[in-house]
Structure formats: C-alpha cells, structure tokens
Amino acid sequence: MKFLSPFTKSLFRSQGWDIVRQIPSGKIAIYGQIAQLITPSTEIGLRNYIAFSARRVGSAMGACPGVIPWHRVINAQGKISLHEGAELQRHLLEAEGIIFDYNQRIDLARFG
C-alpha cells in the first residue's frame, strides 16, 4: 500500500468524516461507498486509490473525533469489522434500531 503525505492523509480523513456525518441515525454505509465519494488523490494514482481506499476509510474511522458517527460504517459483507471497538459499535447500531441477523450481518438493502 502506498503511503500518503500527511497533508493528503488529513484531507482524505476530513472528506471521509464529512461524508459520514451525513449518514442518518438508523442507517449504515460501507467503507467502499464512503471511499467512492472522496476525491481521489493524484499523489498515489487512481489504481492505488481504488485498491486501498476502503481500507483507508476504515483507518479514518478508527481515528475520528467522537462527534463523527463512525459506528454507522461497516464492511461490504454487512458486518462489523474486527477491531477494538466492535462491541461498542454493535451496541450503538442496535440502539439506533439496526438489526443483526443470525450470521451477525446487517441487511444492506434495508439499512443502507
């Protein structure tokens, strides 16, 4: 994965956080959807951007300020990705009325 300059990384995070702020309560988005809405960096090239942007969104969610509803971003399988705050994320989503099925997945068509 190519590394971003501190400025580009900051810009990417800022754009991602602005997008996530717009996800309403009771709805979710996937990392790749957020990445598609962020202006691609010319610093790393389009191919690298496409290949790694969803992962960078995940990283940005892990570093966001508390006022960002980071918990509303999940993986493309409709699951919470494994990370330290996964239990809290599930709790916050359930508090907003989001339902998990027996496979621990969220219905993307219903809640997306």
Explain what you see.
The protein is mostly helical and 112 residues long. It has a single domain (7-111), classed as Arc Repressor Mutant, subunit A (Orthogonal Bundle), CATH 1.10.10.10. Helix content is 47%, strand content 4%. A two-stranded parallel sheet has the order 1-2. It is globular and about 40 Å long.
Radius of gyration, whole Å: 14 Å
The backbone outline, from C-alpha atoms, is: globular
Query: Would you identify the CATH architecture?
Result: Orthogonal Bundle
State the CATH superfamily name: Winged helix-like DNA-binding domain superfamily/Winged helix DNA-binding domain
Low-pLDDT residue spans: none
Q: CATH fold name, please?
A: Arc Repressor Mutant, subunit A
Order of helices and strands: HEHHEHH
Broad CATH class: Mainly Alpha
Counted up, domains total: 1
Number of strands: 2
User: Which strand order do you get reading across the main beta sheet?
Assistant: 1-2
What is the CA–CA distance across the termini? 28 Å
* Count of runs of 4 or more consecutive helical residues: 5
| Average predicted local confidence, pLDDT | 91
Helix coverage percent? 40-55%
List the helices and strands and how they pair.
Blueprint: H1 6-20, E1 29-30, H2 31-37, H3 46-62, E2 73-74, H4 86-95, H5 108-111
Parallel strand pairs: 1-2
Helix pairs in contact: 1-3, 2-3
Give descriptors for this structure:
112 residues, mainly alpha, Arc Repressor Mutant, subunit A, 5 helices, 47% helix, globular
TL;DR of this structure?
With 112 residues, this protein is mainly α. It contains five helices and two strands, in the order H-E-H-H-E-H-H.
